[in-house]
Design brief:
Elements lengths: L10 H8 L13 H21 L14 E5 L7 H6 L3 E5 L3 H14 L4 E3 L11 E7 L8 H11 E12 L3 H10 L19 H10 L2 E12 L3 E5 L5 E8 L3
Length: 245
């Protein structure tokens, strides 16, 4: 764990997620909800990639030759698919236990991913074509500083994709009241007061010189599971780039 006093990592949050490291790749374990969310997120990311870098929509590796940074990577649920899409991936996580699990799993899959137990604020290199951070900003100590750090790592023509829960009565019911009791989310994972609305996150992004170019809600359908939708009441995704003046 880095000692940088400006890092936005909350040590309690890091310990909470680090305790789940051994089960991260178990679709029925403590990260079961992430496994259910991952296909929908990947579909959104693939659409954003194809729109931002046209001409490769039929390619198996549309990120070939590009660098991707996944911040708050856990044990690699998103980093590994990004590597399979051709990216040279760096994954960051606050919990060394998660990084150890991520490295071991990637090695078994034959994937070369640069995993680091390092805060994004301490990453020396930048110019990443793709920066992703899924369900992370609601766990940091200073969301504005975190967004500035992400922006600093993004290449001038790069793409950033974020997801986070909205702060609504429905998200409290779905993710905490139900989700952390019977819905498969480990108890204590979320603090509803730290959830960020799309308007608040958009303002933080704009303050960091970024602009939102696409957004989508993440909803739950009893018949189909998680789906992309116009309803952002529970959770949402944003596609972001540097502001073009």
């Amino acid at each position: 764990m880095a000692s940088n006093p400006t890092a936005t990592i909350d040590p309690r949050e890091a310990a909470h997620f680090g305790a789940m490291a051994a089960e991260w790749w178990d679709p029925h374990g403590s990260s079961a909800m992430l496994h259910k969310l991952n296909p929908v997120r990947l579909a959104y990311i693939r659409t954003a990639i194809d729109a931002h870098w046209p001409g490769k929509s039929h390619d198996f590796e549309p990120l070939g030759g590009k660098r991707a940074l996944d911040v708050g990577c856990g044990a690699g649920l998103l980093a590994e698919p990004l590597a399979r899409l051709g990216a040279n991936v760096t994954g960051l996580d606050a919990a060394p236990e998660n990084i150890a699990a991520a490295r071991a799993h990637a090695e078994r899959q034959g994937l070369a991913i640069d995993y680091r137990a390092t805060p994004v604020e301490e990453v020396a290199d930048g110019g990443y074509d793709l920066v992703t951070s899924m369900e992370v900003i609601e766990h940091v100590t200073d969301p504005a500083a975190f967004i500035r750090a992400l922006a600093a790592k993004l290449a001038p023509d790069g793409l950033m994709i974020l997801s986070t829960p909205n702060r609504t009565p429905l998200s409290r019911l779905a993710m905490i009241t139900i989700g952390e009791s019977i819905g498969g989310i480990p108890k204590g994972t979320h603090d509803w007061g730290k959830f960020i609305t799309p308007e608040e996150l958009t303002a933080l992004l704009e303050q960091a010189g970024l602009e939102v170019i696409d957004s989508s809600g993440l909803s739950f359908d009893p018949g189909r599971g998680f789906t992309l939708s116009a309803n952002k009441a529970i959770n949402y995704l944003l596609t972001v780039r540097h502001r073009r003046d």
